[in-house]
Amino acid sequence: MREIESQPAAWNRAGRLVHEIASKLPANGQRIAVIGCGTSYYIAQAVAAARESRGCGESDAFAASEMPTRRMYDSVIAISRSGTTTEVARALAALPVGARSVAISAVADTPVVDAADDAVLLPFADEQSIVQTRFATTALALMRAHLGEDLGGPIADAEAALVRPLPADPSEFEQLVILGRGWTVGLAAEAALKFREAAGAWAEAYPAMEYRHGPISVAGPSTLVWWLGGAQPDLVAEVRATGASVIQSELDPMAELVTLQRAAVALAEARGLDPDRPQHLTRSVVLPSTDGGMR
Predict the structure, then answer these.
(1) Does residue 253 share a domain with residue 186?
(2) End of a domain among 146, 175, 198?
(3) What is the CATH number of the domain that holds 95?
(4) What is the per-residue pLDDT across 111-152, written as a single tens digit (0 to 9) for each?
(5) Which phi-psi region, left, alpha or beta, contains residue 57 (left: φ > 0; alpha: ψ -120 to 50)?
(6) What is the pLDDT of residues 28-80, one digit of tens each?
(7) Is 66 a member of any domain?
(8) 247, 227 in Cβ contact below 8 A?
(9) How far is CA 227 from CA 76, 156, 217, 251, 259, in A?
(10) How many domains does the chain fold into?
């Protein structure tokens, strides 16, 4: 919880840092790709969607293992907390000549940082927990500031999210669904991942308008549907008609992600689990050189 609670301060620090490292990040108008694995991939999705929606240039996001290395981009941003994730380092090494790359990481002198042309380091956002919270949102805060957003509102909302009672007890539900639109689709996927990692929960995420195209068929009284960002009244009504519970929030979606992180921790503790050390997971996925993945 200490790392979750420290997020507003980390975002503030990232906002102050952005002017010093602006030249390392893509300029407006450049065609870019953002890559990562796991949590970092979902943050990459949020960054790419936010950048393109603000008219800053074409922006794609890929899981690092699926990066189309023959496609030419002006710049590739690689997000990796540990800097040791094999798929990310391999994707950077396989980029075509002329594609500039920058790593956003918490740790210097690592394979990902070494494989990139430049790096933005956020050591103050590093974490002891295997489950990412602070680094991921700080990387997103940095990019939002780089896109010209004022972080004052999100920081204030995150401070509120840390002290408010949870809007629902997640242990009362069998299924959790998080919905987003635009740049919050990636945040919804990240929130669902937190519930799966920390609490072993049945948690899913969808673009909000896609939810009625099949997934709503399993909704019922044991389902909690949580919106990140604005909710569509007609869809809310359809969800309520299934008997599912609905949560909507006026907080900035990045701040509401903090609420979802707290809920995932609460569910893990209710189940007697350690939310910082989930089963089968390590801080970073490092593959042997004989692995059949991307080279």
Answers:
(1) yes
(2) 146
(3) 3.40.50.10490
(4) 999 999 999 999 999 999 989 999 999 999 999 999 999 999
(5) left
(6) 999 999 999 999 999 999 999 999 999 999 999 999 999 998 899 999 999 99
(7) yes
(8) yes
(9) 30, 20, 18, 11, 12
(10) 2
